[in-house]
Write the structure tokens for this entry.
Amino acid sequence: MYFDLFVIGGGSGGVRAARIASSLGLKVGLAEGKDLGGTCVNRGCIPKKLYSYAAHFQDDVEIMKSFGWKTEKKSFNWSKLVLAKKKELQRLNGIYRNLLINSGVKIFNSWGSFGDNNKILLNKKKIINSKYILIAAGGKPKLLECEGAEYCIDSDSAFDLKVLPKKILIVGAGYIALEFASIFNGLGVDTTVCLRSNVILRGFDSEISEFLYKSMEEKGIKFLFNEIPKRISKTKNKFLVEFKNQKQEFGLVMSAIGRAPFIDNLNIKNTKVKITKSGDIIVNDYYETHHKNIFAIGDVINRVQLTPVAIAEAMNLVNNLKKRKKKKLNYNNIPTAVFSNPNVATVGLSENEARLKFKKIKIFKSTFKPLKLSLGNFKEKVFIKMIVDSKTDKVIGLHYIGEDAAEIIQGFSVAVLKGLKKSDFDQTIGIHPSSAEEIVTLKQ
């Protein structure tokens, strides 16, 4: 069987590439060994956000009380949430399938691996030949390296636990670890986070990381800094975790130390494609590997591991296929969010990055209690930080912690991307009363 383009991986990037290529008249095939939609739909963004909503309702109940509501008869059913999530994901899987079918893409429900540079094997048997091949296989959770690490669950399995534990340890302090910490804490689980360093959310603005840490700690989440499990052992229905300086028992241990490219089944050794020591597929600015007809996008190349970025890479790649003058994707000013409690969202540079890149910068900040929390005894606050290049007055970084942070920063990211100045923000009239209006009234 022959195709113009064959895609390995049915995640957001692979599906978008297949659809766009087919709409341009190419004969396209796609192989996916699991559910369509990839990590984002099935084991990442979507179920995570649904569970995050569920966890936030605990706070909402307390807020309701401050507005005069009676809320004595509250209860939570974990199994009902898991079942509702499964039904929603089945619906989304169906949508992805129909989008591909209606676009004329041939779908193969099997794993794809390389026979050689031009040949794909499906389930190691069926032979597919294609002019172009796109690797969009996504990522997988990294494994914790310590004695007893096999007892850990990961972010893939956390969504489908049969029962909620009473006490959980989460290893790691990146966005996945912190999102799950907020989820479990919000659902009533005694939650502890441990990490190798003394800073959560490495790579984010340091003030944002510190503010989030204090906010999460106030909500009851415990942090063990400079601690990582040395040994995990099972004792009846619990797990004994041995650290450098202490031992603790937990009902469950979750490893959330990052993700790695999912290239296990590809048999890349049969091609000229080269990978890094960490398993990332090496590509140039146009997603070409070391073999001219094989491309790669998304989590397997480890540029920016975000679903919208994989989709943008897919569109950029396909649109370049038949063009002599190819365009590069702009990775600057990509907005991102952490659906912790409270939410974090950011676009542009951190303060440290800005100081390294610009001679002189201005910092604008605001910390306040949002109106929604003003009637009760709540400690949670909103924190906003804006970074401005002193020479041009352009806003080069915007960071927000608080409810609906992603919704707010998504809109302002257009302004940062297009190089608007602080004076442009100052001339914008805010919507009152809203938390977002603080962004256009910030003082140095």
In short: The two ends are 64 Å apart (CA to CA). DSSP finds ten helices and 21 strands in the chain.
